[in-house]
Amino acid sequence: MNLKTLPSNNQSNVRMQRRSKVDLLLGVSFIITMIILSFAFDIEFVESLYQLTRDHEDWELDELIFSFLWIAITATIYGIRRVLDIRTINKEITFHAYYDSITGLPNRSLAQYQLEKSLYSAQRSSLTICVIFLDLDNFKDVNDTYGHDSGDLLIKKVGKRLASIVRNNEIVARLGGDEFLIIAEFPKNSANIQTLISRIETCREEPFDINGISISVGFSIGVALSPQHGTSVHELMVAADSAMYEAKKNKLISACYYTDEIGKKIVERYRLSSQLKQAIKSNNLYLVYQPIVCSVSGDIKGYEALTRWNLDGTHINPEVIISLAEDIGVSEDFFEWLLNTALQESALFVGYGQFIAINVSVRQFLDTSFLSNTKHIIDKHLGCNIEFEITESSLIVDFKETINKINALSALNVKVMIDDFGTGYSSLSRLKHLNVDKIKIDREFLSDACHDPKSAKIYEAIVDIAHKLDINVVAEGIETLEQRAFLKQFNPIYMQGYLFQKPQISREQTPEHIIRKMVIDH
């Protein structure tokens, strides 16, 4: 790509170029003037000028005139050098402004500029502009495991491999982080779009050699087309980005085309985002609680606090609330509201020795202010018995930091429970390094175990290992008597589910003696 055709907004460079050209012009003009005068008067101008100064030495003009002559020549040479140097500097500045330093590929600014040019050209033709967002799967694991230098090398090699499969009418760019963008032009209704996606997918077939280590990476691909999905740079970038995240959520597909349904989800997400911040400040969120009971005695050992948001009659999923809070930067405010509210309300119904379990997201748990915020809040609620539920994904993000955080929480008399155990990436062997009090086995395991002997063996193995490590087990998602009967073999464990009580607000909790009778009778 010709750097001269790229836009430049650097006014300093423009002024420097203008000044250098003026210097050059003045020097050249002076020399040309002397030459013209020589020819015009048919004299050896310099020789005559020299003789004139010899005849009138008392004028002392010889040194002055020849000084001006040498200054003109020097200025001309200097002007030429300045023009060349500034041109070289501008090329370097332009390259760094429009190209990625790691991969050498066009960056976001240049990609958007090229996309804008392609869209303008497409308006006068029958071309379809294809915009593809590509994101590496689990790239953070590479950085955390092998270091950021290895991560940068992987990015560089991925970029080189992508650049090797694009053709003349296609551009590959790096947007930043582990995201790449590909822009292509095709005839309308062309099947070549799918061919391009297939070429992109071949880039992940062979592992990458990173400092002697073989690393395989997957891609999540989002595709948007113009004019179907947008006619501006912003619209197409948003559409392709949205499709890419949809592909990342759906593990069964690697490439996802933008659809109106995805667009509606994005619009709805923006709508919720704009109202969540106000909902936190106005206490429009509320909590419900579900008891966690002993499988032997039926005693209520604790309650899990679950967030609810009733927005214009629509109940918003708790996972959506947490995700939105993180996206709009109010995760810390949301956590403080959650912990304060849970401790205030639980004081009205939680009995002696019972705990209150609170879900903590990965980002909240690893936030640098998490411990200080927790301590500040629990200091205002003396005698509280808290357990934080963290997911397995929290463990793999930074295992050493997780160990330190759990130990620090233990010093504050706050216990930790691993939620949805078995669905993430942690191994049972990691449990021995963690000072956790409980693991909560994901509900899908229980659902399968009642009908599949192999799943039942897996469930049994998890419970057995946890008990041998002195870690309590919580079985969640108990909805039927069949599931309750299956769990009897693992006594004693904790149980949680709709069979005993649906999540209810604080003042509508089922009396303990009713739940105790239900457990003992069944």
UniProtKB/TrEMBL annotation:
<dbReference type="Pfam" id="PF00563">
    <property type="entry name" value="EAL"/>
</dbReference>
<keyword id="KW-1133">Transmembrane helix</keyword>
<keyword id="KW-0472">Membrane</keyword>
<dbReference type="InterPro" id="IPR001633">
    <property type="entry name" value="EAL_dom"/>
</dbReference>
<keyword id="KW-0812">Transmembrane</keyword>
<dbReference type="InterPro" id="IPR035919">
    <property type="entry name" value="EAL_sf"/>
</dbReference>
<dbReference type="InterPro" id="IPR043128">
    <property type="entry name" value="Rev_trsase/Diguanyl_cyclase"/>
</dbReference>
<dbReference type="InterPro" id="IPR000160">
    <property type="entry name" value="GGDEF_dom"/>
</dbReference>
<dbReference type="Pfam" id="PF00990">
    <property type="entry name" value="GGDEF"/>
</dbReference>
<feature type="domain" description="GGDEF">
    <location>
        <begin position="127"/>
        <end position="260"/>
    </location>
</feature>
<dbReference type="InterPro" id="IPR029787">
    <property type="entry name" value="Nucleotide_cyclase"/>
</dbReference>
<dbReference type="InterPro" id="IPR050706">
    <property type="entry name" value="Cyclic-di-GMP_PDE-like"/>
</dbReference>
<feature type="transmembrane region" description="Helical">
    <location>
        <begin position="61"/>
        <end position="80"/>
    </location>
</feature>
<protein>
    <recommendedName>
        <fullName>EAL domain-containing protein</fullName>
    </recommendedName>
</protein>
<feature type="transmembrane region" description="Helical">
    <location>
        <begin position="21"/>
        <end position="41"/>
    </location>
</feature>
<feature type="domain" description="EAL">
    <location>
        <begin position="269"/>
        <end position="517"/>
    </location>
</feature>
